[in-house]
Amino acid sequence: MDSLRLSLSSLFSLSVLFAIANPAVPAVPPPPGMSFQRINLQVNQRGNKPFQEGIQQYNQQDYQSALASFSQAIVQNPKLADGYHRRGIVHFQLGNLQEAIDDFTQALTLTPKVGAIYLNRGIARYSLENYEAALEDFHRSVQLLPSSADAYANRANARYALGDKQGAIEDFSFAIRLNPTNASTYSDRGAVRNKVGDTAGAIADLNQAIKLNPNLAEAFSARAEAKIDAGDQVTALDDFNQAIKLNPKSANTFNKRGKLHSTLDDKESALEDFNQAIVLRPNYMDAFNNRGRTYLFLSNEKAALKDFDQAIKLNPNFTQAYFNRGKTRYLLDDQSGAIKDFDQAILLDPTYGKAYYNRGFVRSHLADESGARADLQKAAELFKEQQRPTEYQRTLQLLEKL
Question: Is residue 24 predicted with pLDDT exceeding 50?
């Protein structure tokens, strides 16, 4: 759901192995961009020269100087709530998320009924993936700012991050009623609707988002995903192309387009996209995993192994990367290494039927009939519970051959 983002607007100027696995998609990624709600808590601060200098420096994007000025303003007036609030915004811009939260909290201690500060602290907490605390702040901002579309849209994102998709859709819908011209909110609601299987509703929302803002790259990317789910891969590719044209620095979109190219059996184009995703985001574990999968399809097992190694280095709990590396090691005749990787995949996800199947398959080739049978029986049990009849029948067939 990397198309989701917090949409705040400023109030002021201020018989073979099973196929390799797809990567796990993060529920919700860090917000790509924030614009805080800024308010004047104290009407007259003309006598506080550092405060005024801090505002000017912030508007000039001289954040280090603004930080020093707001700090000096707070020394001059320790009860200057707006000083803490604005310094918190500067800390956020500098990536000092915990410091931002501390300043927002101090501002709320001094002025406990300002919805914009709750909303901004919620953004910082959301960015630290503390979604429960962010949701609490967004709840409070909705109470204090009942006419703020941003408050509802941000609460929607926190609800989605916590798995409450229907609650997210309800909040996005309320935000749209409050502000029916915000393209990003339609885009976000469309992305969530697609996740709950409402493909038609998703595409309708994303069409509206693009109508309102033809330059909204995230809407084209989200519509491409919805079109894929609707079986329209050709025009989905057109949407990914447009999204990249509008935002050529989006690693996520290159990664998604690469997956579509791979599905369309254009492996070379897929490799180009995964390469570019990694150039843009060198620590992009999903792109390494996807590129490894593509190398494996092209029978370049050694290159695949390097990519899966890197994906696991970046995330030692990356279940699918262990699974994929296990298959790669088997193809490179490293059967003991393959079993170790399938062991780890199962340890991370005990319901991973394909990992049990593949480990059983490798054990059968090592003449470990009892181990193979136990794994295949467990795989069959899981496939039956998960209502996966094709995998279930395939497992039974292999069991009969033991």
Answer: no
